[in-house]
Structures are given as C-alpha cells and as structure tokens.
Amino acid sequence: MKFETRAIRLQSKRTLQNEHSTPLYLTSSFVFDDSEHMRALFASEAEGNIYSRFTNPSVREFELKMASLEEGEDCIATSSGMAAIFATFASLLAQGDHIMMSRAVFGSTFRLTEDYLAKWGITYSYLDHRSTSEWQSQVKPETKLLYLETPTNPGLDIMDLRQISDFCRKNSILLVVDNCFATPYLQKPLSLGADIVIHSATKYLDGQGRVMGGAIIAGHEIISRIFPFMKNAGPSLSPFNAWVLSKSLETLAVRMDRHCENALKVASWLESRPEVKEVRYPFLASHDGYDTARSQMKAGGGMVSFELRGGMEAGKKMIDNRSMMSLSANLGDTRTIITHPASSTHSKLSAGDRAAAGISDGLIRLSVGLEHVDDILADLEGAF
C-alpha cells in the first residue's frame, strides 16, 4: 500500500462491536483470564497487555503505524520528543561511552547532553554540521552514537544522510536521526542508512497543537534494548494522546503537501525583501544544501528561517508587529507560528554556542501553516 493508504488503513483489529473508527483504550490496566494467563504474561510467554505503562492497544496502533510509515521494523512511543531522545541515550549508552552530536540541534538536547549525560560519565563531542571533513578526528574507541537533525532546528541546514551513514558504518557507530521537521512523508532516514529515527510527535505528526508525544523507530534488536528502560522508567505515551496522534497521521500527507506549498511561496517572497539578509529553505536553489535536499527529501517542508538586517532589535520588532501569526515556541501547527530563537528556544546557549549552531541575533524561524498563503504574506509584510 502507498504511504497515504497505510496512514489511514493500518488500524487495530476491530472489536466485537464492528466499529469503523478505532476506539480509545482509556485504561490503566488489564485483567487476566486466570492465574496461568497472568503468569504467562509476566513471564513474556504469551502476548497481551498488563499495564498501560508497558503496552496499550491505542499506543500500539500508533507505534505500528509509525514503524510502517518510516519503513522500520518496530517503534516505541514516548510522552514527548525529548523523552524519545533521552530514552534512546539512556538505553544505549553507559558510563565511559562517547557520543558525537551535530552542533545544530534543539536547545533542550544540548542541556540533556551537558547537564545529565556528562555527570553520568558519558563524554560528548560537538561536530561542525556544515563540514564533515573533521569528523573522523573526533571518533574515539568508545564512540557509540552519532546524533543529528536534518533539516536542522532552526537554521534548516541539510545533512547528507547517505554520506553520514557510510561514515557511521565505517566506524561501527549507530546513527540517530531526528526526522521531526521532514516527517516520514518527506524523508525516510532508515532507508538512507540511519539506524534509529526520533520524532517529536507534538509537531507535524499531531499537526494541530493539541497533544504531546514522541516516537523511536528502529530495528527489532535496538527496540528490544530500549523497551526495558521505557517499561521501568515510565516515559510512556498516554493512550489518549496515542489515539489522537494515530488519527492525525491519517491526514499527514495532505497537510504536508499544503505546508510545503505555502512555505516555498513564503520563502521565495522573502528573498525579494530588502529587510532580509538571507533566507533558509531546503528547496530554494540558493540554499547550499539544495542538491542534497532534493536527493533525500520529497519536498522542502513547512519550516522557513530567515535572517533580518538589524539583528536582535529587528527580530523583536518583527515579532511585536505581527497580527495574525502566533508567537509560540511550538511548530508544525495548522496555524503559522513565528519565533525568535535567540531570545526563546536557544536563549540559554552562550552567544558563541549560538553562533556555532548558525543562530544569529536576527534569525527568525517561521512554521508556515495552512492558512491561505496571501494572508500569511500580508501579515509578514505588515510585520516588516
């Protein structure tokens, strides 16, 4: 089946009620037939549900759907995207291990690495995401993971997943890719050589700013190493959120088509504005990663970043002059969202770290929504 059909038709088995839409399994626990059935379930000798922190039918539907859409073997759903990142690190890394990470990652990922992994004896190296030529010198015998985003947040740099996958295989390193900005509709990292895909389902997978969630997609062996942590630590996705997210996936393709269409028009319009120093959008020919983006993505996505002449003050002025656009730290919504990363999502980084990640004081991140593009452009023009 095609992507769009799988997103709609992959569902839990119908109950005796013969419902057309999958029901919500809003329960914390499950009952056993008898003492032997209970014993077999706890001994993992039989399939079934025990407790919703472990497994739940609503959650499992979302997991199986995500595994299929990302063309992976299995999936674990989590309570948020950061929970997915932390569960992956906590399950696959140990004291003395080393992780390599692109400098262009979400601000909370920096904090997780520096404030928590470091105090547990896990070392890290930040990589120049714009040039892989120096990466080999950062590899150590104890290096276990390489973590990156593509497109990156918020600079929308593009990483060549085929090239990086070859690098990781050569060095026996697991490649973990955050596919939040592209979604499985536009990009499939596992098919390009990655070992693990991470999602913040809070963003485009939900698509309407309603619920939080995360997902980890990988092969059965890797998922089997992460599941015990999930089961015992408990960063599990709630059945209600899983039910909402599974329904949201049914419209992911049509939503992303509109996001991409609007974003390309907005990015092209921004290039003509004298107030704008640079526009970053993967499917603009002016983007330095244009050829790579075209080779590994179906379309350019719904995110646009641009740098204003005038720095911090120009950024704040634009934020305050908007009318329709929402001022929020979220993204991937039906509503267009404008953000000034230097004073919000990446404000806790030092000026040097922001510069190394490509985040200037005048950078604006735009999550282009599903409104009529003329209204989005009119609001941007008024904000200038």
Task: Please provide a written account of the structure.
- This protein is of the alpha/beta class.
- It folds into 2 domains: 3-249, Type I PLP-dependent aspartate aminotransferase-like (Major domain) (Aspartate Aminotransferase, domain 2, 3-Layer(aba) Sandwich); 252-383, Aspartate Aminotransferase, domain 1.
- Helices cover 38% and strands 15% of the residues.
- The protein is built from 14 helices and 12 strands.
- It has helices at residues 3-9, 35-42, 57-69, 81-92, 107-117, 161-170, 183-186, 220-233, 239-249, 252-270, 290-296, 311-321, 351-356, 373-383; strands spanning 74-78, 98-102, 123-127, 143-149, 174-178, 196-200, 214-218, 276-280, 303-308, 326-327, 337-339, 363-367.
- The strands form 2 sheets. Strands 1-7-6-5-4-2-3 form a 7-stranded mixed β-sheet, sandwiched between helices.
- The longest helix is centred in the last third of the chain and has 19 residues, at 252-270.
- The termini are far apart.
Rg of Cα set? 21 Å
For the report, how would you describe the main beta sheet? 7 strands, mixed
Query: What portion of the residues fall into strands of 2 or more residues?
Result: 15-25%
Distance between the termini: 46 Å
Strand order of the largest sheet: 1-7-6-5-4-2-3
Query: What form results from the Cα inertia axes?
Result: globular
- The CATH superfamily of the largest domain is known as Type I PLP-dependent aspartate aminotransferase-like (Major domain)
CATH class of the largest domain: Alpha Beta
Write the CATH architecture name of the largest domain.
Answer: 3-Layer(aba) Sandwich
Helix content: 25-40%
- How many structural domains can be distinguished in the coordinates? 2
Oligomer: single chain
Tally of alpha and pi helices: 14
The run of helices and strands is HHHEHEHEEHEHEEHHHEHEHEEHEH
Say how many strands there are: 12
